[in-house]
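Dear H.,

Thanks for agreeing to be a second pair of eyes. The structure we're designing against is below in C-alpha cell form, covering all 314 positions.
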C-alpha cells in the first residue's frame, strides 16, 4: 500500500498511524513508515504527512520520536485536538527533536549571515507544518485558542464521523447536521489566516452514485469556504481536484476583472462595471485570489490573460 501511494498525483498524502493501525501493530507501523519516508519524494506528491495518535492516547510521543527524523516528512496531522494544549505538546516535541528547523526565536542577523556564508551548504528545510483534526464539540468551542496555539499550524481538518459520535448525530446525505461545525471551522481558518481548510470525508466512493455524492459534497464544501477535501480512495482524487479548482468560466471572469481593473486604476477609477455589474475592491480581491488558485492548479493564466487583453472597464 505504501509503495502504491507513490503513483498518485496529489497535494497532500497522509500516512496513518492512528485508527487504521491496530494497537499490536503500532510499533511495526512506525518502523515501516520511517523507512518509507527516507526514500526520495515521488514526483506527483507535493506534501507528505503522517497522522499520529492523539496526544491523550499516550502514543503520540513514540510516534513523533519515530517519524520526525524522516528527511521527507512535511507535515504532522494531529487527531482529536480538543484544546491548544494538544498542539503545545506536539510543538514542544518538534522543537526539541528538530531545533534547526524550529527555533524558539528568529535567528539574529549575525548568526544568519554566518550560517549562510558557505554557498555549498544546502538550503535550510522549512519548518514542519501541523494540521489539526477538529472532531468534537469541545474543539469547536475552543477554535480561536487552537488556531493561536502554534506558529506551525497550517490548517484545520473536519473529522465528521468522530464529531457525529461526540454529538450523537446521524449523518445524512444533506449534511445539514454538520453545517454549523463546517462553517465555524472554515471561518476560523480564514480569520487566523491558515492556508488549508479540509472538509469532511465522503464515505461513498464506489460507482456512479458514490462519485455523484462526492461531487455534491465537494461543491458544497467549497461553497462554505473550504479549499480542499479529504479523500479515502484514489478514485476520489480527480473529482475533488476538479471541484475545488476554478472552472474555465470562473478563470475567464477573474482574468477579465484583473485586466479591466488595471486599466481602471490607471484612469483613477476605484469602482466600475463589467457585464452590467459593479466591480469594486472586494470583487477585485476575489478575482485575484481565483487567478492565483487557477495558476496553482496548473491553468495557463497568461494565455487566458492574452485572450482577454482587450477587456475594458465599462
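And this is the sequence the design step returned. I haven't edited it by hand at all.
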Amino acid at each position: 500500500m505504501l509503495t502504491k501511494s507513490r503513483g498518485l498525483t496529489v497535494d497532500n498524502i497522509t500516512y496513518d498511524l492512528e485508527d487504521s493501525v491496530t494497537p499490536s501493530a503500532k510499533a511495526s507501523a512506525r518502523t515501516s513508515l520511517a523507512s518509507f519516508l527516507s526514500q526520495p519524494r515521488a514526483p506527483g506528491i507535493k506534501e507528505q504527512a503522517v497522522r499520529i495518535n492523539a496526544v491523550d492516547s499516550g502514543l503520540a510521543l513514540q510516534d513523533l520520536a519515530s517519524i520526525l527524523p524522516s528527511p521527507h516528512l512535511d507535515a504532522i496531522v494531529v487527531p482529536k485536538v480538543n484544546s491548544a494544549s494538544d498542539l503545545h505538546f506536539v510543538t514542544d516535541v518538534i522543537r526539541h527533536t528538530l531545533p534547526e528547523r524550529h527555533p524558539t526565536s528568529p535567528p539574529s542577523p549575525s548568526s544568519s549571515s554566518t550560517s549562510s556564508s558557505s554557498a555549498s551548504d544546502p538550503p535550510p528545510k522549512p519548518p514542519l507544518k501541523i494540521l489539526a483534526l477538529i472532531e468534537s464539540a469541545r474543539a469547536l468551542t475552543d477554535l480561536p485558542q487552537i488556531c493561536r496555539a502554534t506558529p506551525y499550524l497550517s490548517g484545520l481538518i473536519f473529522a465528521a464521523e468522530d464529531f457525529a459520535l461526540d454529538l450523537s448525530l446521524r449523518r445524512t446525505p444533506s449534511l445539514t447536521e454538520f453545517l454549523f461545525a463546517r462553517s465555524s471551522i472554515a471561518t476560523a481558518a480564514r480569520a487566523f489566516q491558515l492556508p488549508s481548510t479540509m472538509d469532511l470525508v465522503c464515505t461513498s466512493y464506489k460507482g456512479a452514485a458514490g462519485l455523484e455524492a462526492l461531487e455534491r459534497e465537494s461543491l458544497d464544501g467549497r461553497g462554505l469556504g473550504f479549499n480542499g477535501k479529504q479523500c479515502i480512495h484514489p478514485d476520489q482524487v480527480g473529482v475533488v481536484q476538479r471541484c475545488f479548482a476554478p472552472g474555465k468560466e470562473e478563470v475567464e471572469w477573474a482574468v477579465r476583472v484583473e485586466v479591466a481593473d488595471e486599466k481602471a486604476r490607471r484612469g483613477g477609477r476605484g469602482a466600475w462595471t463589467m457585464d452590467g455589474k459593479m466591480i469594486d475592491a472586494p470583487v477585485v480581491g476575489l478575482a485575484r485570489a481565483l487567478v492565483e488558485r487557477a495558476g496553482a492548479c496548473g491553468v495557463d493564466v497568461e494565455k487566458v490573460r492574452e485572450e482577454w487583453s482587450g477587456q475594458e472597464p465599462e
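Two observations from my side: The chain has 14 helices and nine strands. The radius of gyration is 22 Å.

Warmly,
E.
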